[in-house]
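not sure who needs this but someone in the group chat was asking about F0F1-type ATP synthase from Paenibacillus amylolyticus so here u go. i didnt clean anything up, its just raw.
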Amino acid sequence: MKITDFSIVFVIIFVPLFWLVSLHTRDAEEAQLLSQKYKSALQTAVLDAGAVMHQNEKQNNEAGYDSTKFVKADKELALLTFTQTMALNMGIQADPAAIQALFDYIPAIVVLDYDGYYILAKETEMTGNAELSFKQVWSPKKPYTYVDPNGSSINFTLDGYVYAYDAVQGKWIEGFQSELASNTQIPLLQDADTFEQVRRSWIVTSVQEDLAEIINRHNEFARRNGISYTFTLPLIPQEDWYNSINDTGIMAFIQGIPVGDQNVNNYAIGGGRLVKKTAVVGGVDPVTGVKYYYPSTCNYGYRAEEVFGDGKQAAAQGYFERNCYVSGQAP
């Protein structure tokens, strides 16, 4: 066979292969870019949702609680913000049908509140028809409840505050673990280190187990709607789980969206970072004996007498306002 014949055979066999490889590489690159777009959109949406969770909180919702973490999470505002940001980043903000289709691939959204959590998921809807109907709804708030072998129950929160039933004494108690240790016979409240370890692991385990069940149940909806992907709870590092319960926040999962020959499978966690108020100090001028209140960031050298949550409380106790910036002092 002549060398020209070999050249012709080479061209016939290998050029189509090179073309297919090039096409696959280009598709893989486009799939990677699209996958990254979904990942970035999900993370941004969760961060935006976490940031607005407490914008509409009312001060009286915090009355009676000493914890800086106790606020009422606005899950509806968080969901609205999440949806708007996702739609905007995916370019479907003017397409309600596309937004609804996107949520078919979001098996669960979790809102971690101070004393419990909510999960948004597809649930069967009773319509009277033989064909099952699914609707995306919030679960009731699920408390972080732990029951010990003695029958005592403890409702954990995102810090050391608890609502507990002492089965031995037959009464309900509430307060910080450090305050209750000497007033109850519940073993878990006796040691701070053990309490903290159990609290964190129990909250994480409760959310994990609920999520695994709900995401698995999403497969029934997916099967009936022609989605061939099998939804499962993704592997999340334990460190991420523990970080997620340091503050109120939101978690979202997106899975199964076809991207090239692969599927998008990602999650994002966003905290509802709380802006902690600067404490107000009530102090006495040692020279004049006049009582002033001022931010704890000021340093006047006054004799501190009391600490207040805000200026109104201090004024009610006879203190006069004095501010670092008004007096020209840097905080």
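also The radius of gyration is 28 Å. if thats useful
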